[in-house]
């Protein structure tokens, strides 16, 4: 229901607010219902309604007990509320099986069943963590910020200050030259005589576009003085109620607990459109021939230029509405009026814009797709067209092509992640597990395989070393950097964050198993391989003086071939079987036999899940099609990366180790890093830590065994023997992160420590000499 605001007395509003605050501490719910929600860290707003308010009671959820006439409605919100057993503030639960110290009860509040599956999948071991929604949320249920982002600039909601830095920047970037084009077209339309009305329109719009803020474009035939609009038929909410049938004292039943009192003013619906006769005029023909095409190019250019930076999307929306609506109106219908602060009533107009930039547009989505991923999609097609047509590098250098090719992997990785989340949320566990195992590592595998094939055909081991560097870089980057940056950002906002130490312990144990398995052949080669030195010299010429040798390393390639065939290769194949088996055991442990570790409870705030009231962004078949297309495009971009990286490897002064552990390892993981940071900002550090651990475990237990399997069928010379720098960096990272995960809590100091250690490791790689094969 909407409350009429014009005759609501200020004194009564103040009284209502005072009573609301004073009475909010009283218990208006039954004890069990109240205790259930006090466990939540963040409580939703309460609306206590009695039968003596029939208009409001229709909005409330019926009470489970029909005899109770006074109850509380908890407005459902999409949030994660965690009540921790041993670490939380709530009392521990007694007499429940499967409840142990260190576990956490996670109550997931969602809007529909599909979102419930998506959120539950985030807590499943081996599933990719996805922050964004996979269903369309009704606009009325969104936050005010989200509503503002998706406005079409046709409603005047409030009069905000218009003299801002962003608006002034607009004048220098867009306003002056768009206004100049209008001033140039204006005399042309006047010279045609018949087009004079459109000349006047150009003059009006020339002054409008140079500073459109705080001005509204309206139809003259529907023009109403906004300041004169007064809501009628207002209702005053009574302070006292004499109904004796209400259970409990009347003073313990406040209408609204939250403050201030929400007042909703109805927005007038758009009037039905009438067919205009101006399309039959000769002046309209001249306008469409001489003026509109030029302005269409101008506004289209302004739309593109303002859409790509994301934060200036309001400028793009304004230009789009001018192009598609204002310029096609009858000239006599266009009226422009400046609004002042006294115009407070929400009114529908043709166009109203009060800001040129909005920093919250990083949250903007189109059909569920984040705006950054959407804006980077044209870069993918440009990369493929230029990369496969300009093989001689006449227009773009190899370094430039490599840069845009590796950047194109970012949006494709995002689309693959969203496709996996959509299919998993709409399918059962078995299908979700297969999709995550199949496509979860497709981004990295496409690059690794194409690089190994390229190196095999070129007859060089340099590409193999780059692949190993990327594997090691992904491993300790996900162990150190992703948890570290999430702890730092989340700790700055929430001071101290707590997580499920038992689930983190499972991931830590799997990390130890992974590191031990992956680097076992490396340790074996150091034990039984030959110590090879590049150059040895004796400066004194005396045989009794020790030789000085440089660049010594253990090499199995020059060892006894029988040793390699009889011992090293069987060891590698054995590990490639044991690691996936360990991954499968981890799945069974965390999802079946010991699922109580996570103790996930899904609820929508009403005790049941609604069915049939949601619109999925991508259906399962559409998501599958996106996965297949994105995988093909990913393989093409990876191929262009390996083709154009050769000059960088040959002539770069930077160590090839450093290129592998930074650019090739972490760029494809940027969407995962963003997901982890968003989880941390919502005080859900458990998922942030699982993001990095999940990727690291998949690298060791899925990706590396797959590379060994690929090499067994198509010999590209891939040997599971890493350099010493990869060995010690990975082992040190796992030991450090397990030490930090011991107490089940973290803050920004621990996060900063992990990030600093990560950069120290990168500095070691930066100053390290390049691999011998490069």
TrEMBL record:
Keywords: Antiport, Calcium, Calcium transport, Ion transport, Membrane, Transmembrane, Transmembrane helix, Transport. Residues 85-106 are annotated as: Disordered. It is a multi-pass membrane protein. It comes from Ilyodon furcidens. The chain crosses the membrane at residues 168-194, 285-311, 369-389, 395-417, 429-450, 470-492, 504-524, 571-591, 623-645, 657-677, 689-710, 716-741, 748-768. Residues 401-518, 623-765 form the Sodium/calcium exchanger membrane region domain. It is found in: Endomembrane system. Residues 165-215 form the Inner membrane component domain. It comes from the Eukaryota. The keyword Transmembrane applies. This is Cation/H+ exchanger protein 1. Pfam families: Na_Ca_ex, YccF. Residues 94-106 have a biased composition (Basic and acidic residues).
